[in-house]
Amino acid sequence: MSLHLRMPRRGLSLSLLLAVMTFASTLVPVPVAAHGERATEPYIRTRTVHWYDVTWSTQQVGVNETVTVEGKFHLFTDWPDAASKPELAFLSNATPGAVMTRVESYINDMPAQQSVSQLEVGGDYSFKLVMAGRVPGRWHLHPVLSVHGAGPIVGPGHWVEVTGSAADYKLPITTMTGEVIDDLQHYGVARLQLWQAGYALIAVAWIFWWIRRPLIVPRWNAIRKGREDLLVTRTDDRVAAAMLVLVLVVVIFGYHHATQKYEYVVPLQAGSFKTKPLPLPPPEVAVQMKDATYDVPGRSLRLDVEVTNQSDSPMRLGEFTTANLRFLNKSLAVALAGVDPSFPKDLVAGSGLKLSDDSPIAPGETRTMRIEATDAAWEIERLVSFLTNVDSRVGGMLFFFDAQGQRHMVEVFGPIIPVFTQLQLAQRH
Ligand SMILES: [Cu+2]
Predict the structure, then answer these.
(1) 6 CA distance to ligand 1 middle (Å)
(2) H or E element: which one contains 244?
(3) Contacts 24+ apart (CB under 8 A), 223-232
(4) pLDDT tens digits, 273-283
(5) DSSP characters for 187-221?
(6) 275/153 Cα distance (integer angstroms)
(7) Can you list the domains of the chain with their CATH numbers?
(8) What is the pLDDT of residues 154-204, one digit of tens each?
(9) Which of 22, 64, 94, 291 has a Cα-to-Cα distance from 127 of 20 to 30 A?
């Protein structure tokens, strides 16, 4: 029996080596290429928060210098049933750890240090993040909206290089009593550690008091024999009482000391704020999705849509965007001009948008057209798994432009079916 339980020596040393190697690998800094933005389910990325007009003020900042990420987001009407509606959300940044400090954040120009509640599905909001460089390196910086019940919904990311020395980083603030704190990141940390260590010491001493004696089975036997009186002695009672008094004294003394030293304290702020969607004019284009297919080997999303121009100006389709990917109509200058020079190139599909009919849609005209968005980005961004989603739906935003260059944003959504060959597609139509 014991022979089977004994671990062979070689096996032991091998597993020890493996453990050491695994631990050592955590110590070696490895450049992080991404931080999970592609792992979010496509139904979240294509049908919840659509980020647009996002800009980065710079791609290189020194330690303590700031970069501003701003833009807008649209909350999609066809919000998936499987994700909670944006009733409570928090605007933040996605970076690999605390490599930058979020020094300011706004939604609709309102300070957004707190969560925002009652966002309206179908509405558009502006946002702004001001980030200060903290740890030197090349970091992927995204805006992110964390929706309670749906998780963090990440916007487009761009590489920002932080230069300089981490030792120079400072976060000075002046408290409301006028006290100047040179560097908030170390303020009060030693005191906090002292308190934690103190309480840990008390806890360990209390546990040790009990576990130094015979434990589970002997105590169980004592109970079975009706000798509970042996389990807790008079000394135990005295130690317990002393412990209670000690903890109370520490708490009362600590509280008294803190209120003496810091006269004005405020609790952590836990409320939320509300803001109405941006007052955008309604789009003067109506779009109805008739059919949607994803050609798996061709890496092509094909949408058959019925477009009605309700304005008095001819319209052309300039852009299809979903999951932070942008497919542009390359023959429409105003659409190309809509891509800010600071926008990450890897999120603009090189092959652009292919339209069955790109002539301007006349005022009042209703046209059925096919929109094709073909790019390897569907695979790279791991978006094709929308095929395996339970509801098999797809969504995105279409940007139409009238003769004056005015943009009209319209949602497009509906069920989608995967196809595996061109032939199969031909049969379907
Ligand atoms: Cu990223």
Answers:
(1) 47
(2) helix 234-261
(3) none
(4) 999 999 999 88
(5) TTHHHHHHHHHHHHHHHHHHHHHHHTS--HHHHHH
(6) 19
(7) 42-171 (2.60.120.570), 185-261 (1.10.287.710), 285-428 (2.60.40.1580)
(8) 999 999 999 999 999 999 999 888 999 998 888 999 999 999 999 999 999
(9) 64
From the CA of 142, how far away is ligand 1's center (Å)? 6
Centre of ligand 1 to C-alpha 139, Å, is 8
What are the DSSP E strand ranges found in 57-170?
Answer: 60-62, 66-75, 88-94, 100-107, 110-111, 115-117, 124-133, 137-147, 151-154, 158-163
Residue 37: per-residue pLDDT: 81
In whole angstroms, give the CA distance from residue 407 to residue 394. Answer: 22
Band (pLDDT 50/70/90 cuts) for residue 108 is very high
CA–CA separation, 235 vs 219, rounded Å?
17
- The rounded Å distance from CA 293 to ligand 1 centre is 28
**Ion ligand 1 residue ranges (Cβ < 5 Å):** 37, 140, 157
For residue 133, the one-letter residue type is G
pLDDT digits (tens, 9 = 90+) for 234-267: 999 999 999 999 999 999 999 999 999 888 888 8
Count Cα atoms within 13 angstroms, Cβ side, for 164: 17
State mean pLDDT over 402-410: 95
Residues 6+ apart with CB under 8 A from 173: 180, 181, 184
User: What's the pTM?
Assistant: 0.81
Would strands 137-147 and 124-133 be described as parallel, antiparallel, or unpaired? unpaired
How many angstroms separate the alpha carbon of residue 123 from the centre of ligand 1? Answer: 25
